[in-house]
Amino acid sequence: MDKQYFFRVFFIINIFLCSCLSLFAEAPELRNVMPNSWKKMTRLSAQNETLFVRNNAELIAKIRVAYADEVEQGWLFSLDSMHIYRETAGTDVFFRVIFTEQNPDFFAWNIQFVQGLIGKHYDKETLLFMCTYGFFSVSERVANHVFNSLDIIISNDKAKGLLNTTLDVRTNSNADGFADFRKGQVKGKTAAEYYLMEIIPETPYFEAHTTSTYLETMDTPISIRATDCLVDPKIPLRYSLQNAFDGDPATSYVENTEDDLMEIAFWGD
After folding, report:
1. What pLDDT is stored for residue 29 in this prediction?
2. Neighbouring-strand partners of residue 230
3. pLDDT for res 177
4. Which residues of the chain have a pLDDT value below 70?
5. Pick from 114, 135, 105: nearest CA to 71
6. Quick check: 253 and 224 in contact, CB under 8 A?
7. pLDDT at position 38, please?
């Protein structure tokens, strides 16, 4: 066989295989609620999910305990359906454990879920972070929750740190939850806390009956604040602050200010 022909065929096959891997290494059902991470995630098969649960029962139990009180108080729906995704961050691997209602529609305006990020830290699996996703309906001009984007920042083909971004689209953070508008478009207050992987403690701290993360108890995050951002009613986190740090030129932080100017401020060790 002609060598040139052989290498040409070999090259085409490799491109095809890489394309297939890229195609299946995505979770398109999450693209509205995790606009910066869904392309890096893959849902575990039923068999692998069962195995993962068996090997990480204690960590998964911590996620359940943390939001159980809010379910009892009526702040959260009954979240009894579990979905586990594998997420790559360069050469590092993480797992997102997501609790929802049965048969969730992640494209629905009233989707609500709790997620926990599990990753290998100090050579053992550790629950690194937790947050709750809210629900949103622009047709009713209501935004009933603060949205969270949990993203892994990559440097030198490894996970460098965790970025926890919050987006609040309620008028004056009103408990009634009416959305805030500027120039006819929804605006939101956006901020973030950045935690280097090297400073995350070996033993996580969790306060019972809270959906906050133990990372908030640490003394050395980098705090990031920014001017109000534009909010897409269908994809609330589409233009918020995390887009400035994900290394993806296809995403962007977009301001919604009176003078069309923006400011991003940093402080911390």
Report:
1. 94
2. 187
3. 66
4. 1-25, 69-70, 72-76, 122, 138-140, 143-145, 172-177, 201-220, 269
5. 114
6. no
7. 93
pLDDT for residue 214: 42
The CA-to-CA distance between both ends of the chain, in Å, stands at 62
For the whole model, what pTM was predicted? 0.81
b/e per residue, 57-90, with b = 16+ CB within 10 A?
eebbebbbebbeebbeeeebbebeeebbbbbebe
